Each structure stands twice: as C-alpha cells, then as structure tokens.
C-alpha cells in the first residue's frame, strides 16, 4: 500500500477554520496541475464506556475511537492512542460493539472532500464536520505517494512535495498552515511498510491535535 | 445468525467418523487448532454484563489469525421448539493480533480459555455447513497452550454449524438436520446443552467403516 501522510490545518493564533480555507486548498491543488478525481469520505466515532453506576468509574480509556477509511470500505479501525493500540477489524465489528452495549459512539465526525491526482501523488483535501451538522471543525489533507510502500524510503520525496505545497499555498495568504504530526509508528507495533492501520493512527493523532487546539468554529 | 448442533463421540471412533465425513462432504479435511478465549466485562461496565470470544487459529501461516465472535440469544417460542437445531444470533469479525490487548484495555477480563484440537470439513449442501471434530483442552496456567490437557479424556466434541439469516434459517436448519442423519450411526447431534450421550451402537458402525474404508452402507 502506498505511503500516506495525513496533515491537518493549524490556524494562526486568533484565526478560525472555515470553508473558505478548504476552497483555497482545493484551488491550490488544481493550480499545481492536480486532476480532480472525485469525492472521498471517512467517518470517525468516539466511544464512551456505558456505566451502570456513574459514581463508580473503573479505569477505562477516554480516547477510544473507531474509524472507517475511504480506501477500506469493508474494514474498521480501532485506536486507543493513550495505550498505543491500533486494531484492524472487519466492518462487522461495529455490530459486535452494538451487541456488547459496553461502549457507545457518542460523537461522530465525517471527513469529506475532493481527491486529486498529481503525477505519482494522490491528494485528498477535506473538511471535518460533526455528523448531522454543517459546522466545519477542521481541515485535513492526505498526501499519498503511489510508487512506494516504505515509510523511510518515501520520506524525502514526501517532504519535498509538502514543501512545494506549502509554497503554492503561501501565495494565497491564508492564516495558518498544514501540519504533519511526526509520530513513532513503532510504539503502535507498526512496521516500516505502510498499512491502513498507519492511516488510522494518523487520524487519531490529528484529532487529538484538533481537540487540543480548541479553535472557535464558524458555520459553513 | 447460525444454526448449531453438537454431540460427543468416543476418541476411539473418531477415525471412523472422519472416513464417513470424507465420503459425505467430498472435500479435504482441514486441521483444527484453535485457542478460544472467553472474555467478560468488568463489573459496572455496560448496560448489561457482556461476553465476547476471541479465537486464535494457530494453524494459519505465516502467523496465527484472530477472530472476534459474539454469540447471542437463541430463537425462542413454539417455532423454535419445532426445529431440531439451535438457531441463534452470531456475529464474527476478523481482527488483527492485538485485539486481546485492546479488549483488556476496554475493561474485559479473561473468564476462561480452551484449546480445541482436531479437524474440520467445510462444504456446501444447500447451506454452507462446517463440521468440526475436536478434543477440548484446558490450560493449567494462563495461555499455556503447550501444556493443555483434555477436559474429558477419551471423548471428543462434534459441532455442526451453518451461517443463516432471518430469511433463510428454516432452510438452513433443515439442511443441517438432514445432514446430521447421516452421522447418526456414530454420533447423536442435538441442540447444545441438551446432551444425549454417545451412540450405543457406535462401535459396530465404526468397525464397519474401518473394515472397508467406508464402502459399506450403514
């Protein structure tokens, strides 16, 4: 599977995230000869333990999430970031979780937007919105380098692409930038060869950064 | 959803059963070596207490594969009583190898574990039917697969299952039931928890099968 980096939009201090930034990013992709290929969508669910006695709280994770990825429609990925756990499962695992009734999905988010082909790269730019809402909470960007599956081997070419992207985007004078979280995949038991589990972990980290930033939101 | 029946057979008759199954199923047998872990939720977790099974297929290459399985309630009522097989909800999902660690983190504890060793046949006969014949083994120490010993020495369990849907479970149950009749000389199969013991004439049936490799009609 090709190496993929998942970047997120970090607004400057005092700035907000908005659809306008998403539109600028999409136009930027086209300005560097990106060919629009269609839409993409991913879904992320935050799970909360269901407790019979609210006053008695066993030691349970507060960052248990599940994600359904656009590239893997028959799979589902669980991540517990604090424990460095990532699990790949068939999509039917969601039915099992419903039957168990021990955890319920309390917050669900969509990532959706457009996909572009740029030579050997595939770019996806998308907004982060709560399900049943149009309030944009963030912007993510996936950069995929199709010829290579090794994280290490792809590093240099990915860094160069991201630099070109930053340069192209800087001409639009936006208040913020796309950031790539450096993370140690080895801590999650993941190897150098890229897999969808790597993508799941990156999304979990991106969401943690977005929540930590706690930016004000604007409609649409 | 699945249809299930099971029964017990003396280990000395397993070879004869294998010959019979080979003839009936028309497929190659597969080795079965599955480590089954039953996990239960810690107190206070969940609307109700819950249980989930993790199955590790130890014979897969290059490394063991894991499945999560949730077994739910059985079909009830007059209709269910008419059916000779158990029909129950069942959901399975393949998972990556650290699923056990994930469930431990989520507040599930190991309730008990077993090692099932034997063989299985998977074939199509109106429904997709699986027959497994295995010894059930317990471990003296946690996860000590290599030290597992039979729970009931000299006896093995035969389980016949077939996946079903709410729309087709009657047909699937009939297919399973019909298939089980062929095994009646060696093993009596019934709904789980309704034990009927071994077949008293199994020895004669087994001798017949072993003497001519299964060519005799029972």
Strand content of chain B: 35-45%
Low-pLDDT residue spans of chain B: 214-218
Number of helices of chain B: 5
Note the run of SSEs of chain A as H and E: EHEEEEHEEEEHEHE
| Percent of residues in helices of chain B | 10-25%
Q: Which characteristics define this entry?
A:
heterodimer, A: 220 residues, alpha+beta, Hypothetical Protein Pfu-838710-001, 9-stranded antiparallel beta sheet, two-stranded antiparallel ribbon, B: 218 residues, 8-stranded antiparallel beta barrel, 9 strands, disordered C terminus, activator (chain A)
What does this structure look like?
- Chain A is of the alpha+beta class and 220 residues long.
- Chain A has one domain (3-50, 61-213): Hypothetical Protein Pfu-838710-001.
- Chain A has helices spanning 19-31, 93-100, 151-170, 196-213; strands spanning 3-11, 35-49, 64-68, 75-80, 85-90, 103-118, 121-130, 135-136, 138-145, 176-180, 218-219.
- In chain A, strand 3 and strand 4 (75-80) form a beta hairpin.
- The longest helix of chain A has 20 residues, at 151-170.
- The two termini of chain A are 34 Å apart.
- In chain B, helix 1 (14-25) crosses helix 5.
- In chain B, strands 1-5-4-3-2-6-7-9 form an eight-stranded antiparallel β-barrel.
- Chain B has helices spanning 14-25, 78-82, 99-105, 169-183, 202-212; strands spanning 2-10, 30-41, 51-57, 65-74, 86-95, 108-125, 127-138, 149-150, 155-163.
- The radius of gyration of chain B is 18 Å and the shape is globular.
- Chain B has one domain: Beta Barrel (Hypothetical Protein Pfu-838710-001), CATH 2.40.320.10.
- Chain B contains five helices and nine strands.
- Chain B is α+β, with helices and mostly antiparallel strands.
- The longest helix of chain B has 15 residues, at 169-183.
- The chains are: A alpha+beta (220), B alpha+beta (218).
- Chain A binds chain B through residues 49-53, 56, 58, 60-61, 64, 78, 80, 83, 85-93, 95-96, 99-103, 189, 197, and chain B through 41-48, 50, 52, 68, 70, 72, 89, 91-96, 98-99, 101-102, 105-108.
- Chain A: One of its GO terms (cellular component) is mediator complex.
- Chain A: This is Mediator of RNA polymerase II transcription subunit 20.
- Chain A: Component of the Mediator complex.
